[in-house]
Amino acid sequence: MKEIQSIGILTSGGDSPGMNAAIRAVTRAAIFAGWKVYGIYRGYEGLIHGEMKEFTSESVSNTIQRGGTILKSARSDDFLTVEGRVKAYENLRKHHIDALVVIGGNGSLSGAQDLAREHDVTVIGLPGTIDNDLYGTDSTIGYDTALNTIVDCVDKIRDTATSHDRIFFVEVMGRDAGFLAQNSAIAAGAEAAIIPEDRTDIDQLAQFIGRGIRKSKNSSIVIVSESHKDGTGGALHYAERVRTEYPEFDVRVTILGHLQRGGRPTAYDRILASRLGVAAIEALKEGQRNIMVGVKNDQIVYVPIARAVKIDKPIDPELINVLTVLSI
Ligand code: F6P
């Protein structure tokens, strides 16, 4: 096995709070190990175009508390092609980069897997997404911060919901994963969550209505995961249905949008990102390749990237039960 002397690091896909803490940790742990570090800008797009520079320990000073990503991020269409990945590989070779650390979500880690399958590159993934939808890790970098942001917003919305006796449909991110919706609903004391995992023939809105909204309460808050890729679902859709089927209700919609992705990372996300970043370098020292570093029961784990991206991470039915029981 070739000894590692130099690594590259990039952030890809949607930014998430704590990515900077992860960049900092990977950079400093690699320098601590005596390796060179290249910061690659704009994700795979920047790798394809050779946008990189050598990082020192100072390059990541004063970043742990900042949201977003100092390396910038992108969703690269070129990298989805074989030719794009050839260019990316050539740039890694040109800079003598022995291993690539990718911080990102499902699509970004799938891209890392494709690169490793087609070329002789060692890749290590770190789970960086607010969606928390990567299998094999209890939490992803940015999820805790986004969850807290949502809860903070819903607390504020509740003031108006209560004052005006209204039903609010609050839309949160997570097109394919309901972790943000389900857990923010529990934490904010919402009446229901409508999540993609529960897309059965049972209509979740009908369930909510059937449970008797406003029988004992004057206001309600329903957290809804954003609409699916096929355009179905979403808060506007459910609000419109209630307006049509139950015109007696005063309905409003709030779409939280990208404010969920920004802001200072929580202490939890900073610590998670720092631990995962250091563990990524430990994994490389041990000769690991093509794995995602995650955390399970507060212990660092290595998960083959193929599993992390392919297997659906289920929502614990216990969480669904907790919300149902507590929203009577
Ligand atoms: O994957 C993170 C995420 O914020 C999803 O929750 C959301 O569906 C998507 O990214 C939005 O992407 P964009 O910022 O490219 O519109």
Tell me what you see in this structure:
It is a single chain. The chain has two domains: 6-141 and 265-310, Rossmann fold (3-Layer(aba) Sandwich), CATH 3.40.50.450; 144-261, Phosphofructokinase domain (Rossmann fold). By secondary structure, the chain is an alpha/beta fold. It is elongated, with a radius of gyration of 21 Å. It contains eleven helices and eleven strands. It binds 6-O-phosphono-beta-D-fructofuranose. 6-O-phosphono-beta-D-fructofuranose is lined by residues 14, 105, 129-131, 173-175, 226, 261.
Helix content: 25-40%
- Number of helical regions: 11
Unreliable spans are none
> What pattern of helices and strands is seen along the backbone?
EHEHEHEHEHEHEHEHEHEEHH
Strand order of the largest sheet: 3-2-1-4-5-10-11
Largest sheet: 7 strands, mixed
Number of E-type strands:
11
